[in-house]
Amino acid sequence: MSRHTHLPRRTFLKGLGTVMALPMLDAMRPASARAAKAAKAPTRLAFVFFPNGCIQPAWKPQEAGEQYELTGTLQPLSEFKSELIVFGGLAQDNGRAKGDGPGDHARCAASFLTGAHPYKTASANIRAGISVDQVAAERIGHQTRLPSLELGIERGRNAGNCDSGYSCAYSSNVSWKSATTPVAKEINPKLAFERLFGLNEGDEASRAKHDLYRKSILDLIAADASRLKKRLGQTDRRKIDEYFTSVRELELRIERTAKAVKETPDFTVPAGVPSDFQEYIRVMFDLLVLAFQTDCTRVSTFMLGNAGSNRAYRMVGVKEGWHSLSHHGGKEEKILQIKKIDKYLVTQFAYFLKKLQSVKEGDGTLLDNSMILYGSGLGDGNKHSHHDLPILLAGRGGGTIQTGRHVKFKNETPLCDLFLSLLDRVGANVKSLGDSSGRLKGLGVR
User: If you average pLDDT over every residue of the chain, what do you get?
Assistant: First the structure.
């Protein structure tokens, strides 16, 4: 590559009705940083929500500090122990009833990222609060093509009564653009993929032609890609080829899953949603990796189920619905079934972390430059508790977070205090969020 060749970080390949962002290349580093091998990658922020709480004795490590042992539920994350912080003592007080009676599942989702107490209504006059992801999107979203990306695996609706007089909007969303406006999640992998590459933004003619001829995204930008590669050095050309290969493999997986769609009794599946549940989750995680790798967005949420999800997990031998099991009443047989669900979902999260870790960025990885929160707005699903929530954080936040620890905070420490600390690290600092009382201390490197 010529020493004079330099590409802006926001370089796109363009074709018929599509734009394709690129991963970080050597040619995108400023000359001085390139010489020192010290280019600064952006910090990404994602929130992965799971409903119904967990079996806490199987989740919570016993010892605090760096010498903690991962519990049974968290064992699938053993490879990433040094990349994690497991939190204890965090709470979402506004998920509690506060005189509103039943509806803890709806409140757990609505308050999870907002720290706000949702107004109890099954009508259109919903109200919660702006969520942490949308605070970030509002402040740093202009730096990327998509301010944020919202994903999920269960269809939601924003009307009707879904939980004891609470609107379905509360159960179906964790992302809120404003107190009265939830941000709908995308559950169709094909549509999410097209959104990343500009095929889902109103250009119906381009989308129709793309579908008619079954063209790959790579076909549409082939000419532009060829011109670009002539300007790049050998290392960057290899990176581009590896990136194109991963994109095409993901396209093929989405095409295959779209052909294998079927409906299940307890869940209406829209066209294009995989019938294999594990493949479904992993395709969505792969899309999120792609979005972060190409800097299409730096902010995302992913719901692994709507609040109160009653999905059965037959792939691990659980035939009864998850929500029904969560009211286990101390029965060991039901507790064992929930443990299977908890561990299964953590296993999928471990898959996501491995994919993030496999993407190299400068001297680190995409995981190093991310902050990925995994957790639930309920602690004990049987008791509907909203304290000592199952929360963990993966990634080093661009070198600003000391991982490899179990950190216990004082009981009832607001989860929103953690959110403020994460927002600071992506350059979206605000004075307060929800019921925050200040920044969470002790996250930084020593």
Answer: 88
Distance (Å, whole) CA 436 – CA 116: 10
- Percent of the chain scored above 90 by pLDDT? 68
Q: DSSP letters along 31-73, please?
A: HHHHHHT-PPPPPEEEEEE-SS-B-HHHHS-SS-BTT----TT
- What 8-state DSSP symbol labels residue 267? B
- 414 and 436 Cβ atoms separated by less than 8 Å: yes
Q: What is the CATH number of domain 43-187+277-446?
A: 3.40.720.10
pLDDT digits (tens, 9 = 90+) for 134-175: 999 999 999 998 999 999 999 988 889 999 999 999 999 999
The partner residues of 301 in beta bridges, in order of sequence, read 47, 150
Nearest CA to 396 out of 446, 348, 347, 444 is that of 444
- Taken in order 324, 325, 328, 331, the sign of the CA dihedral is positive
* Whether 199 contacts 215, CB under 8 Å: no
Whether 119 contacts 128, CB under 8 Å:
yes
What are the residue ranges spanned by the domains of the chain? 10-40+190-272, 43-187+277-446
> In the structure encoding, which two tokens stand for residue 25, read together?
């290349």
Rg (alpha carbons) of the chain, rounded to whole number: 22
- Alpha-carbon distance of 354 to 394, in angstroms, equals 11
Give 31-49 pLDDT, tens digit per residue: 655 444 445 789 999 999 9
Instruction: Give the CA-trace dihedral at 199, 200, 201, 206, to 10 degrees.
Output: 40
Instruction: Say if CB 176 and CB 131 are below 8 A apart.
Output: yes
- DSSP 8-state code for residue 264: B
> Distance (Å, rounded) from C-alpha 99 to C-alpha 254?
46
User: What is the signed CA dihedral for 12, 14, 17, 20, rounded to 10 degrees?
Assistant: -40
